[in-house]
Design goal:
It is built from six helices and 52 strands. By secondary structure, it is mainly beta. The strands form eleven sheets. The chain has a 22-stranded antiparallel beta barrel. A hairpin with a 5-residue loop joins strand 48 and strand 49. 37% of the residues are buried.
Length: 818
């Protein structure tokens, strides 16, 4: 083919322009280079066959005659098993010489090359290439095979949506940077996404009250790079406190948790933003109808980088519909909306709310064996609102406020002694504070409340693979936690401050086994805990076994014992302006015991031809709970008692995928009962029992376009109704409400349909623009999520107070990544 026609074809394919003199290319006819070659490989191909030279200047390429000075170039390009170029692959030759491939996988070397080439990249098996394999005039294609990490074997690659997978140890993994789409989400909000998993729900549709298999939110362990999070939400629970921009991986364990996780009697949610590689520079800017977000990774050297992530709401400046709906949901039936008459007030004129979060990370590689990580975290919510009234002589105004703040820092050193031996040392510290100031005009009273936590510790862990079948892990953890609670009232004068500190130690051992035929995997671990102040020593065994008789079936057994010393209670429903009612406290081994749990489950999974069917039955019992931790709003509200709850249940999922269409439906049933000493009846339904839950979704993906429609239905939570609508005279306390048996009735069923869609424009090879929209509660269904009863002092009547879920709430996202 004539060279001119070949150049025209290359220009169209690679979006470049050629400049040349007609007489220079006249008379050259060659076989055209393969279309799959990278651009520079095609240029070398042409140069080797025509003796013409080339010079690149941006998108312009100059072809010209000249003295042939470089006829000894070796060229090649690196691709994966699917023919996609592998950028930043390292080619090592000689004793200490290295180069890396470009974005098209291409590289060149000067001749002669006397030693073998070693080609490697993270996630691929290293390959050795002999120099003689590159001696022809054409650029050789070097194929790298994907590297398989046996300990991260996946049972289900796509669980509900892309980016969510189930691991062979029974845990779930969420990777936000690979996240597909779920109904109602414009971004991979991890704590909202995990509520789509069977057995995980929120009784009030927030991320600050996540219930896993009937447990309370504080019974879940949330960690970010080893820091325990005592605050998980913005906007008092409607938005996750961690930015979805972080390139982190989230590991969720409902049962069979690793022995390296303590301080929880329910699930463990481990959020990590520490990649093993350094990565390339990248930046993203985005906004939705709540706030702005920013993320950047700066590669400060070949072996170091910085990650910075920040978000800030503009709710104190702009009032979009999303913010109005969120405000109405969160502030209803609180001091902000005049609790006494249960009516909403004009937010715009009397309140100001905003939130922000920030993370900073530093990663340094020292040679091929050592990694150093330093991370910091800040999360803040701030609410100020003013109340005013006009008297006969003056205008009276009072300002109340509520602030939540989390600060954390951690550092870790990871050492890879060999391919089979790894160790890590890390230390951390965190500070959590929530304080509220409630200034009442009516009673000329100012009430101040505070809850503060200081949490610090360090850990040492070691992993050693004895042989291909066995891997042994061991470790030690030390933790010191102090919690302070304070209350202060000016009229009548009252002040209280209570501070408690606990120090604990844990020795950990785990053994993993993987059979030669890959059909059996098991992990057995034990965690030995010692609490200094109580002189308490106890062990917690954990076990996980999975058996795959063939590629279609898997049977799984999980069991564990766990404990925790820090928990949340509700002293009064009006604490912290009635918005943040819960405060953290520590066990005292008396009226607030150490909570202990036992859990076991058996599950079966079937996969074939795009079908996924799984069913899991579980049993869970938690001892040492307090009545103050259950947020009662009936005759038990001021009763202090200790007890337990027991849950039995079933989780079912069926999922089908074909081409770009995916659909799934899940069903969860559980029976959750309290058992309290000194309370009659001794056994009654849990306040967090959701008897039946059905989730469903249909998702379609076509190239860069994704759309999802889904629904959630569940039975209403238990409530305690009055025996009569007539006010009764209660001895020694005056008028009151006589209640029926605790949690003997239910509010109405919850039903919601959600929608989301997104599209990604690839602007250039390294930049893209993402657009997304979502609508929560499309049909604007008025769901009641809580109900309680109170006395109306004006007419001595019993009135019902309902809390409603979010109304129809739109949101939109635009994000640029480059």
């Amino acid at each position: 083919m004539e060279l001119k026609k070949i150049l025209e074809s290359i220009a169209l394919q690679h979006n470049v322009k050629f400049n040349f003199a007609e007489e220079d290319i006249f008379g050259h006819s060659i076989f055209p280079p393969p279309a799959t070659l990278p651009l520079r490989a095609k240029l070398v191909y042409i140069s080797n066959r025509t003796n013409l030279l080339y010079k690149e200047n941006g998108n312009y390429i100059i072809i010209y005659k000249g003295a042939k000075t470089d006829t000894n170039r070796l060229c090649a390009f690196v691709v994966d098993e699917y023919g996609q170029p592998v950028d930043n692959a390292v080619i090592q030759y000689g004793t200490d010489k290295k180069i890396v491939t470009g974005s098209d996988g291409y590289f060149e070397l000067p001749r002669p090359v006397l030693t073998d080439l070693v080609v490697g990249q993270m996630g691929f098996q290293t390959r050795t290439v002999k120099p003689k394999e590159l001696l022809d005039n054409d650029c050789k294609e070097i194929v790298l095979s994907l590297e398989v990490n046996e300990l991260e074997e996946i049972v289900t690659e796509r669980y509900l949506t892309s980016g969510i997978s189930k691991k062979k140890d029974g845990s779930f993994s969420i990777k936000p940077d690979q996240f597909g789409i779920l109904p109602g989400l414009t971004e991979p909000d991890v704590l909202l996404a995990m509520q789509q998993l069977p057995g995980i729900n929120s009784i009030d549709e927030t991320v600050s009250n996540i219930n896993v298999r009937g447990g309370t939110h504080d019974q879940n362990l949330f960690t970010w790079n080893g820091i325990r999070l005592f605050q998980t939400g913005h906007f008092f629970g409607l938005i996750s406190a961690l930015s979805p921009n972080l390139a982190h991986q989230v590991k969720i364990s409902k049962n069979g948790t690793s022995a390296f996780y303590g301080e929880s009697v329910s699930s463990a949610i481990d959020i990590s933003s520490r990649p093993s590689d350094i990565g390339n520079n990248t930046t993203s800017l985005g906004t939705n109808m709540i706030g702005l977000e920013f993320y950047t990774r700066i590669k400060s050297g070949e072996n170091a980088n910085f990650d910075i992530s920040a978000r800030r709401s503009f709710t104190d400046v702009l009032d979009f519909p999303t913010y109005s709906k969120y405000s109405k949901r969160i502030f209803q039936n609180t001091v902000v909306t005049q609790l006494n008459n249960s009516m909403d007030v004009n937010y715009k004129s009397d309140k100001e709310f905003f939130f922000y979060d920030f993370t900073g990370q530093y990663h340094q590689k020292l040679g091929d064996k050592d990694d150093i990580y330093v991370d910091m975290l800040c999360i803040n919510n701030s609410l100020d609102f003013a109340q005013g009234t006009i008297t006969e002589t003056r205008v009276v105004t009072e300002v109340s406020d509520l602030n939540q703040l989390t600060l954390g820092g951690t550092a870790a050193w990871r050492r890879k002694w060999s391919d089979t031996h790894t160790s890590e040392f890390g230390l951390y510290g965190s500070y959590y504070n929530v304080d509220g100031r409630n200034a009442s005009i009516e009673f000329n009273q100012v009430k101040e409340q505070e809850n503060t936590i200081l949490d610090a510790g360090f850990h040492i862990s070691d992993s050693y693979r004895l042989n291909p079948l066995f891997n042994i892990k061991s470790g030690y953890q030390y933790n010191e936690i102090g919690i302070e609670n304070g209350d202060k009232v000016n009229e009548p004068q009252y002040s209280r401050t209570v501070k408690e500190v606990l120090r604990s130690h844990a020795l950990i051992g785990e053994l993993e086994y993987d059979s030669p035929n890959r059909k059996i995997y098991s992990r057995a671990g034990i965690r030995g805990n010692y609490i200094e102040q109580f002189g308490m020593l106890y062990a917690e065994p954990r076990i996980q076994v999975s058996f795959s008789p063939n590629v279609l079936w898997q049977i799984e057994l999980l069991a564990e014992q766990k404990s925790q010393t820090a928990s949340q209670i509700v002293e009064l429903q009006g604490d912290f302006l009635g918005i943040e009612k819960r405060r953290w406290i520590l066990s005292n081994d008396k009226d607030i015991p150490v909570q202990r749990s036992r859990q076991a489950s058996v599950g079966v999974t079937y996969k074939d031809k795009g079908w996924l069917v799984s069913i899991e039955n579980f049993y869970k019992k938690v001892n040492g709970i307090t009545s103050y931790g259950q947020a009662f709003q009936d005759q038990l509200e001021l009763i202090q008692a200790t007890g337990s709850y027991t849950v039995v249940g079933t989780e079912f999922l069926v999922q089908k995928q074909f081409k770009g269409f995916y659909a799934w439906l899940s069903y969860t049933w559980n029976d959750n009962d309290y058992s309290f000493d000194n309370i009659i009846p001794e056994k009654f339904p849990s306040s967090f029992e959701i008897k039946h839950t059905v989730n469903s979704a249909a998702i379609y993906e076509w190239h860069n376009f994704k759309v999802a429609l889904g629904s959630k239905w569940y039975t209403g939570k238990p409530v305690t109704p009055p025996l009569s609508q007539t006010v009764a005279n209660v001895a020694d306390s005056g008028p009151g409400i006589i209640y029926a048996s605790p949690n003997s009735a239910h509010i109405g069923n919850f039903f919601q349909v959600n929608f989301s869609a997104s599209y990604v424009f690839n602007i250039t090879e390294k930049s893209r623009l993402q657009l997304g929209v979502s609508v929560l509660n499309i049909f604007n269904r008025k769901n009641i999520i809580n109900r309680y009863y109170r006395l109306n002092n004006d007419n001595d009547a019993i009135e019902v107070v309902n809390t409603y879920s979010l109304e129809r709430t739109p949101n939109a996202l635009i994000k640029l990544t480059f």
